[in-house]
Specification:
The protein is mainly alpha-helical. The chain is about 55% helix and about 5% strand. The protein has two domains: about 1-90, DNA polymerase, domain 1; about 105-270, Intergrase catalytic core (hpI Integrase, Chain A). Helix 6 (about 125-140) packs antiparallel against helix 8 (about 180-190) and helix 6 crosses helix 10 (about 235-245).
């Protein structure tokens, strides 16, 4: 199975982002381990069913199991298209998708983080980390997009930055719109940033910051602020929910968040939209 997964990943790399491939690869390797790395032609429908049931027993949510099942289904579809005799992809059952409210940071979390950062004794770190958190809050960008920003990506005189959209494998730019305070924070960072590396946000060793370093930095300040550990993506959810509160439609929200599929923004509007309730009140 492992050789088929490797071939599958190579084929998907043409059209999928690195993060999507990595996520699928991890789930498929777990399944391969469960099947003791037998040939894909030897995997049975019963193997798949037992793996799904075991995942339930171990406490995985239906949504998590659904992602695992989708990965397995696509792997078997790939093998089928290549002419390998294996279980039909249609026999890989998908649990129902449960729509849950996205876990989002709050305005109180945001202000508590900024207060903790303002208390940072090291001036350069204080200015850099403030700019990072304010950019996440102001734009709703993905953390992968944040770390991909270069100094030349900034257009501060127009309160915006250009970022390569992560979901298109870095093939399409989109604009991140900044507020005045975030633009000011980024300007302050540029004044103290002393490095020839093109990366906007750099470590103390003058290397581009990565996702893990951003996450760890935020967790450190969460502890100092005595609040729960906030996931970077929660700022994105917070931004999206704010968009809905302020009356933006799905198309506008998808554009601001860089969604490839407009349906990705429905989870926010579905949870917040009161238009049907108001329409009902007019009838009854």
């Amino acid at each position: 199975m492992l050789s088929t997964i490797t071939s599958f990943n190579s084929w998907r790399s043409v059209s999928k982002s690195k993060n999507t491939i990595t996520s699928y690869d991890k789930d498929l390797r777990y399944f391969t381990l469960f099947c003791r790395n037998k040939n894909i032609e030897e995997v049975t429908e019963e193997d798949i069913t037992q793996y799904i049931l075991l995942s339930k027993t171990l406490g995985w949510s239906d949504n998590s199991i659904r992602l695992k099942a989708v990965a397995i289904r696509e792997l078997f579809q790939y093998a089928t298209n290549k002419g390998q005799k294996c279980v039909s992809p249609k026999l890989v059952a998908l649990p129902n998708h449960e729509v849950k409210p996205p876990k989002a940071a709050t305005i109180e979390d945001y202000h508590a983080l900024l207060e903790a950062i303002e208390a940072e004794p090291k001036r350069t770190l204080r200015i850099r980390n403030k700019a990072i958190v304010m950019t996440l809050y102001a734009t709703g960008c993905r953390v992968g997009e944040l770390v991909s920003l270069n100094v030349e990506s900034l257009v501060l005189d127009e309160n915006k930055a250009l970022v390569l959209t992560e979901k298109t494998k870095g093939e399409r730019h989109r604009e991140l719109f900044l507020d005045d305070r975030t633009t000011e924070a980024l300007s302050d960072w540029l004044q103290v940033r002393e490095c020839n590396d093109p990366a906007l946000f750099i470590t103390r060793r003058f290397k581009r910051m990565g996702r893990i370093s951003i996450r760890q930095m935020i967790h450190v300040y969460c502890e100092r602020a005595n609040i729960r550990k906030i996931n970077c993506h929660e700022f994105r959810h917070f931004f999206a929910l704010d968009c809905v509160k302020n009356g933006l439609n799905n198309s506008a929200i998808s554009s601001l968040l860089g969604h490839i599929n407009i349906q990705s923004s429905f989870v926010y509007t579905r949870l917040r939209d009161k238009s049907l309730q108001k329409a009902h009140e007019l009838v009854r």
